[in-house]
Amino acid sequence: MGLYEDLRAAHGPVAPVLLDGDVRAWLVLGYLENRDVASRPTQFSRDPRVWHGWRSGEIDPETSPLVPMIGWRPDCVCADGEEHQRLRGAVTAGLNQFDHRGVRRTITRFAHELIDTFCEDGEVELVERFAEHLPMLTLTHLLGMSDESAPELVRAARDLFKATETSLASNAFVLECLEQLVAEKHVRPGHDIASALLAHPAGLTDEEVQHHLRLILLAGYETTANLMSNVLRMVVTDPRFRGSLAGGQMTLPEAVEQVLWDEPPLMVCPGRWANDDTTLGGQQIKAGDMLLLGLAAGNVDQTIRPSAATPVHHNRAHLSFSAGTHECPGQDIGRIIADAGIDILLTRLPDIGLSVPEESLSWRSSTWARHLTALPVSFAPGPAGRHPPGSAPGPAARSDGRPAATAPPVPGPGRSRDPSPGSPG
Questions:
Q1: Dihedral pair phi/psi, residue 124, rounded to 5°
Q2: Is the per-residue pLDDT at 415 higher than 80?
Q3: Cα–Cα distance list, 186 to 139, 197, 305, 403 (Å)
Q4: pTM score, two decimals?
Q5: Cα–Cα dist 396/393, whole Å
Q6: What CATH number is attached to the domain comprising 236?
């Protein structure tokens, strides 16, 4: 965040930056400028083939670790206009087929299973053992994959977002897993996103289905895992935060919203490409230039948020899920995973606390996000397999695709049963 403020002080709301390999781009730092870029698809395309860097040789598409993040793919993120509407309509239909209570039941089952693996120990590292695995277990289940796929996919997804020398191999592994899933769903369709995409009237090809499954899996996993880690860190390190939850001044969904303002799980969103010469934030943008949405920087822009200390947990106007026609369509599912998972953890382990000095916590940063590397906590050991009344594990859907008849979990004190209803972007 200090870098963003240095760039803002030197260049204003739009700053010239260099990515890995000295690749040139503009980083949009201002809140209003971010919304402007995200809301003008005719001026700022989402199709990376507009970028002049491919033609100038500025990047090697065979070796650059940036390619998994900025390369073209046959999905709705890389499309504009009618093609974007066709593809995004299939994605939103696939996501909207799930009842929120059914999704919550699935999260409840996986959360209890994860907590059962460490609740008797009295201590655990929450990032690896809980925050990274619950979103992947939930998303692989919703996509139609086996639960056993999650551990390998967690490692591949994290590596892909780090933009390391192995990112291309990790991306290939994810695509291979999803190609196999598409082939399986042709033979045995079910109540899942993969089957919904294959059956949608938009007529998606197998390749388009595969890449949309990649999009849902990676975008949903990365943002939700980071969001859960950030909320859990606030719960165990900030007495005011914990006190507001315990005292009922703030519900858990409101706490999630506050963290989305303060620590967006995706700090920089790639990317937009200028269709024509234009001016933005006092900078001269040339046709074909790359722009990156600075979500974290925009959320603390003093133009709209004079004091970062002001509570904003009732306000969803942040940039954490982007904005405009490409606003994240799965944000409600991400909120439910974070809300339900953390709710269950705090209900099962109410005295949880940080077991190391707060100043010893560390992060791993990439161009796109900042990850908490570990969150070691301690608590009074409790028995495995004994779940609070009303929160017994149960599947979201039966094997024949019909909803399971399982009672929804009972929310704990000061927490809402479901997040506020909202339509996908």
A1: -165, 155
A2: no
A3: 20, 11, 50, 22
A4: 0.85
A5: 10
A6: 1.10.630.10
